Amino acid sequence: MDGKNADTYKGLPQHIKAANMLVDKGRELRAGDVISYVKTKSGEGVKPVELAKTEEIDTEKYLETMESTFEQVVSALNFDFKSVLGKPRQQKLDELFWSKPAS
Hints:
Blueprint: H1 14-24, E1 37-39, E2 46-48, H2 59-76, H3 81-84, H4 93-98
Antiparallel strand pairs: 1-2
């Protein structure tokens, strides 16, 4: 970011970080402008879409967010997200200690 310290943006909301990066690059912004950004692997954690390179995008962060969202939806239906994906389900502690032994 043109020699700017990553701490400059620390603690700011992500859309504000992205907006500040655009201003630093000379873009004029006004109230109401829509700032599109992506989560990145960089120290800032976010970049405006127009400044981000594909390899900088933190795809793991997006996958974690999607998994968390879907886990909430399927758990409301009494399913386990990982078992829906075909992954083995980790037992909960209460199941280990209080479940009835198999006959």
